[in-house]
Design a protein that fits this description.
CATH topology: Alpha-Beta Plaits
Number of strands: 2
Bound molecules: iron/sulfur cluster
Number of helices: 2
Order of helices and strands: EEHH
Helix content: 25-40%
Number of domains: 1
Radius of gyration: 15 Å
Distance between the termini: 42 Å
CATH architecture: 2-Layer Sandwich
Length: about 100
């Protein structure tokens, strides 16, 4: 399951840098989690890092994105592959320049 941030968020900024998948960003008025990037931290950590640091406990499971651990692991693999591809492309540009 991906997680989501409720309107109790106080914009304290501490969760964004903790996300290993860059899934958290500032929305129109409060922080948001991109469900396409959130793996519940599966693949990186035993516990969701944003939940660990949030001082007001406003990051529950997103009921619209219920997923199995296998699906979350598959997303982790996809995100890592995309990251490797970006790093490889950046490295090729540097080598070419
Ligand atoms: S659970 Fe992990 S991957 Fe999902 S938003 Fe929080 S820190 Fe990011
Ligand atoms: S840690 Fe909690 S209160 Fe702070 S910005 Fe993130 S979701 Fe909002």
């Amino acid at each position: 399951m991906a997680l989501w941030i409720t309107d109790e968020c106080i914009n304290c900024d501490v969760c964004e840098p903790e996300c290993p998948n860059d899934a958290i960003s500032m929305g129109e008025s409060i922080y948001e989690i991109d469900p396409r990037k959130c793996t519940e931290c599966v693949g990186h950590f035993d516990e969701p890092q944003c939940v660990q640091v949030c001082p007001v406990s406003c990051i529950p499971v997103n009921p619209e994105h219920v997923e199995t651990r296998e699906q979350l692991l598959a997303r982790y693999d996809d995100l890592q592959a995309a990251l490797r591809a970006r790093l490889s492309a950046a490295s090729a540009v540097r080598a070419g320049g």
